[in-house]
Amino acid sequence: MMDTSAEDLRSPQRQLIECRMAHADLDALIDQAALAPQPLDELLLRRLKKRRLALRDQMARLQWMLDPKEPA
Predict the structure, then answer these.
(1) What does pLDDT average to over the chain?
(2) Quick check: 20 and 58 in contact, CB under 8 A?
(3) CB–CB of 18/68 below 8 Å?
(4) CB 13 within 8 A of CB 66
């Protein structure tokens, strides 16, 4: 029987998967906004792009945690 604690659910692997999903969702939303007949508010679009960049940075940190290039 496996004990699933809150810590297991927030493992770096799980966080990386969640970040990738959120990044893909933002990508799709930003792409849709670019094709929309009436573009999104410019401020909102900049915030979405900034959030996407933050997610990319977080994914890079998580990936490094999971697979560091230097021995610990």
Answers:
(1) 86
(2) no
(3) no
(4) yes
What mean pLDDT is predicted for residues 20-24?
97
Residue 57 contacts by C-beta under 8 Å, 6 or more apart in sequence?
none
DSSP string of 10-62, one letter each residue: T-HHHHHHHHHHHHHHHHHHHHHHHHSSSPPPHHHHHHHHHHHHHHHHHHHHH
Place of tokens 């679009």: 45
Tokens standing for residue 10: 């927030």
Which residue from 19, 26, 4 is spatially nearest to 65, judged by alpha carbons? 19
pLDDT tens for 28-62 read 999 998 888 887 788 989 999 999 999 999 999 99
